[in-house]
Amino acid sequence: MKIVVFRHFSFDDPSVIASWSKHAGHELIVQDPAQGIDKKWLKTLDLLVILGGPMSVCQEKEHPWLIEEKAFVKIAIEMKKKVLGICLGAQMISEVLGDPYFQTTKRKLAGMASTGRKNTMHG
Hints:
By secondary structure, the protein is of the alpha/beta class. The chain has helices at 15-24, 41-44, 65-78, 88-96, and strands spanning 2-6, 27-31, 47-50, 82-85. Helix content is 30%, strand content 15%. It is globular and about 40 Å long.
């Protein structure tokens, strides 16, 4: 299986995913989307993991690369790829599926978003 992980800041630690994927014999690509996204990955990836970040999904002015990342995530979902979003990633999945995220002045707990497909991942 080919796994692409979007990591949004340098101190985020994808080592658990890396360890699991190495143990299971999967190919792993870890990429900071601000440095660019290779659209060719859409043809070959089996799982897209979108990690968290200090930014909000609605901060496109401050982080213009979010526009490209959201487009990539939307296409991956439309192509029926497996997509897992954690924190910022869950916000992104929710937004591209049509449930807009908005910032509030109240503190919120992070949530999870689902594509609505049956879980077919097995470790």
